[in-house]
Amino acid sequence: LKANAVAAEESPGSLEEESVVAVVSDDAKRVTVTERVSTGAAGRPPVDQAAVIVSGGRGLQDPANFALVEALADELEQLPA
Fold first, then answer.
1. How many CB atoms lie within 10 A of CB 63?
2. Exposed/middle/buried for 28, CB within 10 Å: 0-12, 13-18, 19+?
3. What are the pLDDT digits (tens) for 17-60?
4. Is the dihedral of CA 21, 25, 28, 30 positive or negative?
5. Structural domain boundaries of the chain?
6. CA–CA gap between residue 72 and residue 36 (Å, rounded)
């Protein structure tokens, strides 16, 4: 979809705000990351098997900035499931 290809319209609905409190078990609070191993692009699982999918687009402004997305994906892949 190209910018300005479709005229903006008012939303018929209204905004509802919901507060959510995260409950973390005592066991989860005791988790310790003991090692992080980066495998690089070749070591990433296929999209249909990935536990976490990270993507980037035009907001990165420069193809070189995709290295930031790749670094984030590598770090997130190492987190415990």
1. 8
2. exposed
3. 899 998 988 888 888 888 876 555 567 777 777 778 888 888 99
4. positive
5. 38-78
6. 13
